[in-house]
Amino acid sequence: MTIASPEPEFAAPDAAARPLWLVPQGDDGPLWPEGVETGFAAASGFAARPGQLCLLPGPDGVGGALFGIGKPATPADRPARERFTLARAAEALPAGAWRIEGAPASYDLIHGALGWLFAQYRFARYKTAEPPKARLVCPESVDRDAALAMAAGEYLARDLINTPAADMGPAELEAAARALADRHGAAVEVISGAALAEGYPMIHAVGRAAGPGRAPRLIDLRFPGAGPAVTLVGKGVCFDTGGLDIKPSSSMGLMKKDMGGAANVLGLAETLARMGRAGGLRVLIPAVENSVGSDSFRPGDVLTSRKGLTVEVNNTDAEGRLVLADALALAAEEAPAVLISMATLTGAARVALGPDLPPFFCDDEAAAEALHGAGRDHADPIWRLPFWEPYEAMIEPAIADLDNAPSGGFAGAITAALFLRRFTEGAGTYAHFDIYGWQPAAAPGRPKGGVGQGMRAILNALPALTDRATGAR
Ligand code: BES
Ligand code: MN
Ligand code: ZN
């Protein structure tokens, strides 16, 4: 599968673009732009509230538009209550090219432009869905190529998540990874069959009950070029029934998105490669379907992981940490400077922070601060939770080294993260992201459906993370 959605695009710079005036709110109403006839807007109640739009008449119809941006934001206000507000204009403006005018210095044009590109995403694989036809002329202060690279990565992640499991099984996820590798000259290795059962027993155990053509596999991408050794590991559970400890239908309905971690690391790799920053990057994806069948792994089974640690399966629905553990163990064997996992790992993370604020875990204070700060500054908020040492006892059952699903479920996101950390020994900085990967209701720049989370936080924190580390490939 190639990228299904059309490429993100700005309007051609020479397009005859109409002006979109950004209008701040003053104490006594809109701070009207100079030289613009605003009587009509004032009379029609335009107050420059954030996201408020007013078309301006012109000789041939619509001559321009005003867009409210509210009171000037201070850095302390970030993250604003609403991200990507300018995406509202992308959705609502008539077709054609638009150029931004009158942006105050404090206005975040980068995320305005990015939100506009994000708003133009449509998942059109199964029905035609017209994207908004208003195109933005990329503002001069915005790095056009970087914005397009970020949008392309986001589009890819959304496409992969949105595609139903019937059309996005382990084989199709592999094909998507191969297509990405082909686009950027990366090397691909895929381990399956006997080699998987032998070398990656937990990936095999989780995926072995899947039907014909949907066998489990470990996808391994390496990007060309020199650079710090960074390995991204993404949970690629293409559908999660829960296995024999089957999920209730209410919980199973969205489980096509259980490869959201894989989608996000592939999206991030796409962005890095387009920016010329993928040298030294490795991407690992354990791709499986957690199915119910006579060959399913069972509650009570004890699995021996790649690393040698034994794991008692107390719930076959805690499958993500099993497949990630073997992939993380492989990653750690070559001691990358930075190791990052992304996974739709626990319901507990959602209970704690909701769908829009993914928790992340990182032991290195400076790296954690860099990640959190990058998320805040790049409209990609994330929130740190602790690898809380005292809870290690919760993942240590009676008859094996580890328990995949501690009873009671207290601190479920933390115990899952602690489980993963056991397999990362040898790696430099390790960070784990427990993402949701889904936009439950449409918001500016984010239609309902698959969504990237944490990609831009990681992208922008990576230089700080790798500066602190030594390894290079
Ligand atoms: N894929 C789920 C977690 C999930 C559920 C993420 C809903 C986002 C939305 C994961 O495999 C899972 O089932 N986790 C269990 C673990 C438990 C059995 C220890 C959970 O969180 O309930
Ligand atoms: Mn599960
Ligand atoms: Zn899962």
TrEMBL record:
One Pfam family matching this protein: Peptidase_M17_N_1
Organism expressing this protein natively: Paracoccus sanguinis
Family from the record: Belongs to the peptidase M17 family.
Entry-linked PROSITE patterns: CYTOSOL_AP
Keywords: Aminopeptidase, Hydrolase, Manganese, Protease
GO cellular component terms listed in the entry, alphabetical order: cytoplasm
GO terms (BP aspect): proteolysis
Signal peptide range: none
Alphabetized CDD domains for the sequence: Peptidase_M17
Origin: domain of life: Bacteria
Listed InterPro entries: Leucine_aapep/pepB (IPR011356), Macro_dom-like (IPR043472), Peptidase_M17_C (IPR000819), Peptidase_M17_N_1 (IPR048816)
Domain Cytosol aminopeptidase: 315-322
Protein name stated in the entry: Leucyl aminopeptidase
Alphabetical list of PANTHER family matching this protein: LEUCINE AMINOPEPTIDASE-RELATED (PTHR11963), PEPTIDASE B (PTHR11963:SF20)
GO molecular-function terms, A-Z: manganese ion binding; metalloaminopeptidase activity
